[in-house]
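Q: Sequence in, structure out?
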Amino acid sequence: MNEKKSLPLRRDLGSQILLFYIIFVLLVIVAILFFERSASRRLAADVNAANLALASAVAEETSTQMSGALQAVQELSTYPEVISADTSQMDVTFRTLMTGRREINLTYRLGADGTMLFHYPVAPESTVGRDFSFRDYFQKALGVRTPFVSKGRISPTTNEAVATALMPIWVDNTFRGLVATNMQLQSLSDALSNIAQEYGREEGFRIFIVDSSGQIVAHSDPFFLLTDARSETPEVIDAVLSRQRGNLVAADASGAEQLYSYVPIKTVGWGVVISRPVSVAFATLYAFRRGALVAVLVFLASGVLFWRDLSHR
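A: Exactly. Output:
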């Protein structure tokens, strides 16, 4: 009778403690993982919402500015001196319009054949008499009767990057040309640069505006002005130009994952895009996940040490 009989579980205190501890540990780990998942979703949602709020604010401000430019050229198209192309009177009218409007660097009138009839200011270089009928905005003006905004380009008159607000002039169903104002894209980029400076260069924060063709017309880094945004993130640009808003994680041209947030500017068919490296945008979330993992590991390690000591005793 030297054989030891194994005790039933209900009488084996060590086995009971082990069982209860395993159940306790599992419950705690499940609770930590559940809390981590819930908190991570909330943190990610907060980051996405903050980016969308900023993009929406920029879109709203840009929309207001562009709507003002469209309204201005629409009103100009009703002035008798603009309709008749009276250069002496247009000089006064255009000068008055541009007073206090630093974003406008040129106001001009094209004839029905696309010839430049007059522009203000007239210096330092004049393009009066030049044919601009080849421009895509002039071709579009032949078939519409409402104001619109052209895609970005370099103006041959001012040699600056501009986008143009235009209004076709129709009299008795006859096309008489158009009146337009050039808006400096650099002024839009300066506003975006000021926003980006609040985040710091090390965060990799970028914000830019694309026109209806997918071309960048304003960027926090002026180097990218008038470049094709689709070359980096076609899915984001296609989405925002389809008047969608949202967030998307995608790889950039260098292969690094970026968080993109985009909001359309519906009045002119443009879009605002914000991009941040995923590692920076979700840094708090990743730190929280690491903390939860460390807590689980510490809890497990403590349990193992506790059980070893209990078993020894």
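The longest helix spans residues 13-76.
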